């Protein structure tokens, strides 16, 4: 850049910006309203929010990793313990949903393997076919023929009857 630059082309900014002069000595009422709003509404809400955020940062809660404790099975509940019956029923429903998802995941893996392998699906997807057969058989043995309104008690009775039939067949 040359030493002798043109001062008219590149003007130097002023050293100080001028301050707007007040035309009146009466204070602005908007300033009072803003200050009052800040102290009455904004400051308490901000304080409470920051307090809650500090507490939440200490105890991180991940809602998608909810873990339930295992409760006693329906066969372990005492007679007339309705709270135990309810908890066992809720546990059975959760277990059934988990088993349904397991079957669905294995089925999706099988479909993906068939799609990927094409005509060679029977030899290359044999493990997936076998796994799907095992999983569906286990699901059918446990939850089959219960219907939509199946519950923990009917599932337990079904398993008991199946075990009795297996004992009779073994003798």
UniProtKB/TrEMBL annotation:
The keyword Electron transport applies. It is a peripheral membrane protein. It is found in: Mitochondrion inner membrane. GO terms for cellular component: mitochondrial inner membrane; respiratory chain complex I. It comes from the Eukaryota. Its main location: mitochondrion. The keyword Membrane applies. Residues 1-23 are annotated as: Disordered. Keywords: Electron transport, Membrane, Mitochondrion, Mitochondrion inner membrane, Respiratory chain, Transport. Accessory subunit that is involved in the functional assembly of the mitochondrial respiratory chain complex I. Complex I has an NADH dehydrogenase activity with ubiquinone as an immediate electron acceptor and mediates the transfer of electrons from NADH to the respiratory chain. Belongs to the complex I NDUFB10 subunit family. PANTHER family: NADH DEHYDROGENASE [UBIQUINONE] 1 BETA SUBCOMPLEX SUBUNIT 10, NADH-UBIQUINONE OXIDOREDUCTASE PDSW SUBUNIT. This is NADH dehydrogenase [ubiquinone] 1 beta subcomplex subunit 10. It comes from Hippolais icterina (icterine warbler). The gene is Ndufb10.
């Amino acid at each position: 850049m040359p030493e002798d630059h043109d001062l008219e082309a590149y003007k130097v900014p002023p050293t100080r910006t001028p301050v707007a002069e007040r035309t009146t000595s009466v204070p602005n009422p908007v300033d009072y309203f803003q200050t009052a709003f800040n102290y009455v509404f904004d400051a308490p809400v901000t304080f409470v929010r920051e307090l809650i955020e500090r507490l939440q940062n200490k105890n991180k809660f991940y809602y998608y990793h909810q873990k339930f404790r295992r409760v006693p099975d329906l066969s372990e509940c005492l007679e007339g313990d309705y709270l135990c019956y309810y908890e066992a029923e809720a546990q059975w429903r959760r277990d059934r949903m988990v088993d349904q998802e397991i079957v669905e995941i294995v089925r999706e893996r099988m479909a993906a393997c068939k799609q990927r392998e094409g005509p060679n699906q029977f030899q290359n997807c044999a493990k997936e076919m076998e796994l799907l057969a095992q999983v569906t058989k286990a699901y059918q043995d446990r939850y089959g023929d219960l219907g939509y309104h199946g519950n923990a008690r009917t599932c337990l009775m079904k398993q008991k009857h199946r075990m009795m039939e297996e004992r009779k067949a073994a003798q």
